[in-house]
Fold each of these.
Amino acid sequence: MVWSTGDSYRRVRMDVDEPKYSASVGTDTMGDSRTVSGWLACPVADASEIERFRDRLYEWLETPDSFRHADDPHLSLFGVRIPGGRAARFERELESFAEAIGPRNCSTDGYLLYPSTRNPMVVSLDLPVPLTALASPIADLLALYDGRISRSPVSPHVTLLKGGARGVDVQWARIDARIRRRLAAVAGESNRCDPPRRLVEPTIEITLDPPAMEWDRPI
């Protein structure tokens, strides 16, 4: 299975705009008026199989200058913005919440190619997990600390390859017709070439660790 333009990385509608809790937790901003930001993500507990698969795909595509490896495989939930004086307390509460829900077992289901198979910026594995059930309670917790969602969730995925040079957030991948045919073949959209079977519409069993914050800068 593959999602491409119109489906791939589609924004996920979640009931998180109206949090259940509206009360603020204390006033201990400690004079810190800055706002800090980051991403909430669930790391893949043992990333070795995902990384081996990523390396095999990269090798078969034969496009060393078009894509770079995505490091630290994880499921992104959503972006967060929160007053700097409350970020540490929110993170501690999040850790307690994460311990309560524990890890989650799931499996990949083919590819997600953003924004399309023909012109991909990102090559990912589709990860059909109930994102709303996981993210909504965290959004409620975030609201208690006057935080908010800054970047909406997208279709659950684990990124394998990113277009462009390392050090740049995201770029268009410079690919030719041969690479497009190979991407279409592993995504099950074309039979014009014969990829290794293990690369076609992959199903990989993984375990996701509980959600954790990845701050854009130290808090």
Amino acid sequence: MNIQSSALKGEGFVHREAVEDNQSPCRLTLRDGLGGYEVAKEVTISYTIGDVRLVRGGRKRLIEAVPFKKSVRLKDGDRIVTSARSYVFDLSDEPGPLETGTMITAFPNSEFALGIKGLIRSVELVRGLFRIITEKEVITPTAEIRFPEGSSPFWVDVSKDGAVVVASEAAPVEVLHKETKKGVVIGFKQQVTVTEEGILEPCPVDQRLKKAYGIYQALSQSQSKFIFGDMVERGVPQGTEEITRIIEKATGEKQDYDREKHEKWLKEQRDLGEQKFREAVETELPEFKADEEVKPVFKAKPRTVEIDKTVNYAGIEFKVGTLERVQEFKGREAPEGKDFLIVNVEAKNDSQKQVYVFYDEEVRLINEDGENVLLENYQMETSFDTEAEHRGSFVFIVSGEETKFRLQFGKKSLPKVDLDLS
């Protein structure tokens, strides 16, 4: 038994205080003999830094949330405003097992409002920089944001004149111009700028967002100054040592626990959190500036192409909805002169039996020269029960100049079926 590990878990979280009528307590519970915490199912802010104001019913007041001690409960229509060097970290709701939730981080000089009905249903971004995880409605001055693959982290930067930059941290995000409804799908580490005049071509994330992500990581790590600082103040190592002695006396077995090492480690974690706190507060972000040199997207080659064609293979109806051409896929850059071609597919088993498809052997791309392009990656179920439906994608690496392809199904030695993707 590792007493130090168990003691850390057991003493790791402290009671959050309900300081005001709009602030939410946490309940300390025990699970399998270890300490834990259980948060009431509400929309709350768990961590604020600096001057953060809550506007409710026309009245504005200062709020404070401290990690693991007190949180601020929010209501429908609440508006949050951050000043210079001020942050809201871990604003979130508590979804049930069949629901998806929302998490928001707001950077300095930001303003946003929430629509709440049990969970967060909408987020209106007025100005400032935000990191958000959601699939709910996100309202900005000039852009509409949609999430074709569900909830995923993304960034939104809203300037004073209403120009908006949207950046994807992981999964694809669809961004539309509010007025023209022209749009693009951005992928991993891509951003797009939307102005009143139109929507620009996607490009790699800029230095402002890269630096912002570093601040976000520092904010996350800075929470350790609260939890470990509290453990040092409460003398957790001394208490754990006393528990260790009781266990040794009861069992007659020597326990692996070093109070001095434990205390040193706690202080190191506290000091690291303090360092990260200062790093986050003192780091200055470059000023927001929409890149006017980027071409409007409606003059550029579309990165997403509508296909909407269907083919039946082995009793399964494969419908190709769109093609996406990107330079990065899951953190990997395409070779020079080439793109990742993502074929987005819906599939349904129309047969009366279970069907298995081994995509590496049975799916390939045929380019305009008649050459086989092997599957690079796929995200699709291989087993189809009767009437089962699945959505996914096939990924290929293609020449940046090629535009005509056929998607082919079938094992090499057996008859094949083709679907024209041009």
